[in-house]
Amino acid sequence: MNEYIAMWKNYANFKDRTSRKGYWMAILFNILVIMALYVLLEFFPFMSIIILIYELAVILPMIAILVRRLRDAGKVWYLVFMIFVPIIGQIVLLYFLVQGTKCDEGVQV
Fold it and tell me: Is 4's pLDDT higher than 70?
């Protein structure tokens, strides 16, 4: 949960780094929030507006945490655009996201 809160606190921070654990925990909690909202949609029809607002609000923090994770893995920020390449680009991006942390000297930790 701390990683999810940190994602929102650093919603426009594109310069720091995010660890592998921090990235995937934030993604997990984001998925859980979206799933909970969709479950509530079954009982409350007005939740569709709240879901739309949440999904629009989470775009910038998700891009920021993705850029920070790529930086932590020793990759350049513009690899984020790999998400737009069908199938192959997404697989390559996923491969980069699961890599370990790289130190400034280029040594993997």
Answer: yes
